Amino acid sequence: MDGICTLANDKVYHQVIALINSIEAIYGQEMPICIYPYDDNITKIAGEIADRSNVQIYCDRNSIQEWDNFARNVWDAHPTAKEHWQKIGSDEYLRFGTHRRYCAFDGPFDRFVYMDADTLLMSPLEQIFARLNQSDWVVYDFQYRDLSHVYSTDSARLQELFTSERLAKEIFCSGFYGSKKGLFNYQQREWLLDKLREGEAEVLYDMAPDQTILNYMVMGLGISSYNFANHLPSDQRTGCCAISPHFETRNYILYDRGNPLTYLHYIGLSSKLFNRVCDGENIDFPYREIFLHYRYLHEPERRPKFTGEPKIYNAPPSLSKRVLRKLKL
């Protein structure tokens, strides 16, 4: 069975509802959706999906516990991560819970597409699922242009582990990917942990904990991967980042030079911003109308009614400019 999954808790309630609605706008309720809980704060989401027969919250506590233990073991092997996180005021493990997206490898779908809660589906995913017949890992993003948010570029071991060619082509964003159930078994995870404890952990980028681990797992095990951004003709490729200003809107679908996006990723925009807007605060942000359309698709009467000129939301300039510059978008 094929399906779409995401990671969420009630802090991203409005965003995950928008995502689910964007999926249903394309597939109706024929596409199964599984939500992996970031933590136990999922009461509002559980209430919202109670009447959606195609949506479930993952509740296999053994699977969740196993991936929790795996993530702890990964970062316990890292030489500096905990010290770094302590200096920036983090908990013992930074954003612990982001790795629970890995539960999809134990989950209900034989093949799945994972989408972050801050994404919206813009097109059917048939090409992603079809490609999974040839590859075990399928992505569509331009993260390969920015190595620094995947691995520690200061690590001397990085070039020893992966060739420059692999690092230039194979890294990916963990916000959207297609894969398969059972891809990482217990023995493979233990082998990876042994390698990390032998010193390979230093290549992991500790400020993107789920993304760096996932890239290390896929690349370290030699999983067959495919990135549409590397293979589609230039006149057919599309971007996906909401900080790209040139997308055109047609019937609440975004287009990049005439081609519909596969998905829109609100990268760099805090969940607090979406919550404030849904609470009625008139703040503008990129493609706000698209988000509000899908968030209130089934309850337009609850959509905020704004008056006056909106306040302009300014994402941290260093972030947005850095991402666009490195991704060359």
Task: Provide a descriptive summary of the structure in words.
With 329 residues, this protein is an alpha/beta fold. Helix content is 35%, strand content 15%. The protein has a single domain (1-329), classed as Spore Coat Polysaccharide Biosynthesis Protein SpsA, Chain A (Alpha-Beta Complex). The protein has helices spanning 13-27, 43-48, 61-76, 81-87, 126-131, 158-161, 164-169, 186-197, 209-220, 228-231, 271-278, 288-295, 317-327; strands at residues 2-8, 33-37, 55-57, 111-115, 119-121, 137-139, 176-180, 225-227, 248-250, 253-256, 259-260, 263-265, 283-284, 311-312. Helix 1 packs across helix 12 (288-295). The model has no long low-confidence stretch (mean pLDDT 95).
List keywords for this structure.
329 residues, alpha/beta, five-stranded mixed sheet, 13 helices, 15% strand, globular
Quick summary:
35% of the residues lie in helices and 15% in strands.
Number of DSSP strand runs: 14
How many domains, as an integer?
1
CATH topology: Spore Coat Polysaccharide Biosynthesis Protein SpsA, Chain A
Number of helices: 13
Q: Structural class given helices, strands, pairing?
A: alpha/beta
The largest sheet has its strands arranged as 3-2-1-4-7
Oligomeric state as shown: single chain
Mean of residue pLDDT values: 95
Distance between the termini: 35 Å
Low-confidence stretches: none
